[in-house]
Structure prediction request, 164 residues.
Amino acid sequence: MKNFATEIKWGFIFIISSLLWVWFEKLFGLHDVYVAQHPLYTNLFGIVAVTIYFFALREKRLRYYTGIMTWKEGFTAGVIMTVLITLLSPLAQYITYTVISPEYFENIIAFSVENGRMTKEQAEGYFSLRSYLIQATFGALVMGVVTSAIVAWFLKSEPAKEGV
Prediction:
């Protein structure tokens, strides 16, 4: 477990950050009054997500690998963090839509139907806890692996070659 302390720490930081982000969305009316703008602003969390991965992998490089980390080592650390985030994602979604914003689905369904974007049946199928649990889990896995690969590439460092 000690070998994965950085990934575990930053995985929890990621989940807590995502819950805080949702709380701010709720606070600023993106789950009710300004629900039409929710898709735009919720995607800005991607900047926060990439930043968290950057700091996590940078810490792994500096503290665990003493400044020298290959792409493979960084990618592996990112994937381990991603697995933890993926496992915690359903819990975060449950907290989001039962504790922080229990009226969100009702509001987004009403908005989608009233604006002709979906039928009531389509909206109820798409905007549901079950649907969001599935989307969040697979989304966390796919986006986490992609983010890990990219951030690890930027943070990789090779040992200095002797005689050069």
Q: What stands out?
A: Residues 126 and 132 are 8 Å apart (CA to CA).
